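Dear colleagues,

As part of the handover before I leave the project, I'm documenting each prediction I ran so the next person doesn't have to rerun anything. This entry is a single chain, and its sequence is reproduced below.
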Amino acid sequence: MRLIILFVIVWLIVGLVFMGYLANAYGDYFRTVGVYHKTNPAVCIMYPDEAKYDNIPILKDLTFSSLNEWQTKLTNSTGGNWNMTTTEYSWSEHGTADVSDYPDCTIFINFPYGVEDESVGRTGFDFSKSSRYYYWIEVDLYTVERKIHVQLGEGYNNSTISNTVDWRMIPPNDTRNIILHELGHGFGIEHYYVTSDCREVECDYSPIMYHSIDVFEGEVKNVTQKDLDMMIRIYGEDGFGHPAPKWIPRQCDMQCLEIDCGNSRMC
């Protein structure tokens, strides 16, 4: 599926983040995208070419498992309306189409092969028109694994150092971590940042919206209570559709999550 880039497309990247300008005196915090869903999200899953990839049943299971985790945990947390609709499209149905062919979709999930030296997950959004908005999620199927090989000889001049670059399929556990994370972007959360002094307090890197995800480490992540609290801070306990409070902070520390500030900008 081709992405038409309009006026306002912003990319949120899973990877290294320049932390200097994001420093927060109040410790760990979330940042929000600044835009949100005005109705319940309509998720459209765009599967890759089945002639090239044989793991589409696995991608389907991982995607629905991730959507279900967000929806179930939010519903159990507040009892609100956190429902999402889902529609699946095979490659033959969307391979030559673009976003204008799917006017009802507000979150697109796509599975490209991968791009060297880029993040393994990306989310962009276009809210330039009040009549049509959407989030665009990309979850890579492959990524580059780099290895350094050192062969020691009798001396410095007899030693060699070499690098290898191998394209590897991203394991299912990592793919699910990436989908969970990118969905958080698709709901309006930017990232969770840890700026506490870890020498004095135990730092918490568990939120799925933590700004970095490692692959090939065997890690299994889940949506945490902090992730849920940030969603509730954006949309209110009643769920999608009518954000409450009406003012959504671009930056929200732990105190911000705990206090109901109404529409005050002092939160």
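The radius of gyration is 20 Å. The first helix runs from residue 56 to 78.

All the best with the project,
I.
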